[in-house]
Structure formats: structure tokens, C-alpha cells
Amino acid sequence: MQDTRLSGSVDDGMPAHFRRVVSFHPRGGRLNDVQRRAFEAHGARWFRESADLAGPADLVALFDRSAPLVVEIGSGMGESTAAMAAARPEINLIAVEVYKPGVAQTLHHAARAGVDNLRVVRGDAVQVLTDLIAPASLAEAWMFFPDPWPKTKHLKRRLFTAEFAALVASRLSRGGVFRAATDWAPYAEQMLAVGSGGKHLRNAHPGWAPRPDFRPRTRFERRGLADGRDIHDLEFLRR
After folding, report:
1. Choice among 147, 183, 230, 233 that is catalytic
2. Can you list the residues of the chain whose pLDDT is less than 70?
3. Counting C-beta atoms within 10 Å of the first and last residue's C-beta, which end of the chain has fewer, N or C?
4. What is the pLDDT of residue 76?
5. Residue 64 designated active-site
6. In terms of Cα–Cα distance, which of 127, 140, 182 is closest to 158?
7. pLDDT digits (tens, 9 = 90+) for 11-25
């Protein structure tokens, strides 16, 4: 997730409601026909701009029901997000993503999976967690295959830091779960050290966690395995 400035003069192919001036814009550009149709058909019910929500958000109204709340940080193109929502019908799942085609593609996958317990919020994850999610309100938070920023000069851009872990922990209820996964070994070690070293989270396992049954193998996971990299899952509990 990278904050830049949005140029309102560029036609990026988005529906008018989807294109607005905000303090950042996601990578990528135009929607393809499938993504545009998905947004036009399902955006009104399943999509929200973070800038349009007052915090803490009324999540019962957002989902039309009360259920354990889960936030996925960086849902990408949403194929696995929709599958996880289908596998966990007992939860309300908020997918936070800044990539415009990814948001629309997630709506497409959700429609194909026939799920209605998924909402997609376009915005910066730190801002969403800080402003829209009430403290101690999450049953779980997920962060699967975030950008590893492998170059040394870019390490400061990694999202999984002690400060971010503390923010996530503050939004988890006591006993809530923070799940993460990566195929980049140095980032996995950083995640393990950060998640195990703070005062608000504890590792649920002696080391790496097993892959959750509900999480399908993602495109990034399959690519990592094909390249010979190990997949590292982590599971931290709110103290």
C-alpha cells in the first residue's frame, strides 16, 4: 500500500462514484469489462469508500446482521477472500484494499461464490483500523501475503511492524486472532519477531502455524512454492 496523490483529471476507467479525490490512490488503472460489470451490479451493496464512512462504523448496519467481525488487510484480487467468506459463513468479513481493479474483481468473485457476508472497503489499512474499527471489536484480523518489499532500501515500507501489530492488537477482542502468511523468509522472521515480542500479542504456536483450513492456496502462495520458497503461516492471540 503506497500513498500518492490522485490526479482527478485522468480518466482511469472507473465508474463515476468509484473515482473521487482522496489522499492516496492505489496502483493500477482501468477496470476491465468483468470488473466494471461486477462493480455496477454489486458495488452499492458490497462496496464502501473508507472516506464515506464515519468511525467507528456501524458494522451491524453495514452487514444487516450481528456476527463476529473479521478484517482482511490487503485482499488483492479477492479470489481467496471470497472463498474464505464462503468457508466461514458465521463471520462478517471486511476486506480492505486500495487497488481499484482488485476491489472490483473481489466483487466479481463474491458474486460467483454466492456470499453475502463480505464487504469491501477501499482505503488505507492503517486509516481504516484507526478510524473505522472500534477498539476490541475484532474476532480476527488477517494479513496474507503482503508486499515483502525485498530490497534493503525498501524495508521501511513493510506494513508488518511493531507499531502496526500494536494497532491490530488494540482492535482485537481479548483472545482474538491475528493471522498472517508470507513466502518471503526474511519477512516471515520479522513477522515472527514482531508478533512474539510485543506485550499485547502472543504466538499461538512454538513457531510457525499450520495453514488455516479455510485459507485456500493463493496465487502468491502457488508462485512461491513453484519458485522453491517455503510458506510461513503465523497465528498470534490477543492477550
Report:
1. 147
2. 1-29
3. C
4. 92
5. no
6. 182
7. 334 444 444 333 334
How would DSSP label each residue in the chain? -------TTS--S--GGG----S---S-----HHHHHHHHHHHHHHEEEGGG--SS--HHHHHTS---EEEEE--TT-HHHHHHHHH-TTSEEEEEE--HHHHHHHHHHHHHHT--SEEEEES-HHHIIIIIS-TT-EEEEEEES-----SGGGGGG-S-SHHHHHHHHHHEEEEEEEEEEES-HHHHHHHHHHHHHSSSEEESSSSSBPPPTT-PPPHHHHHHHHTTPPPEEEEEEE-
Give the number of other Cβ atoms within 10 Å of residue 146's Cβ: 21
pLDDT at 222: 86
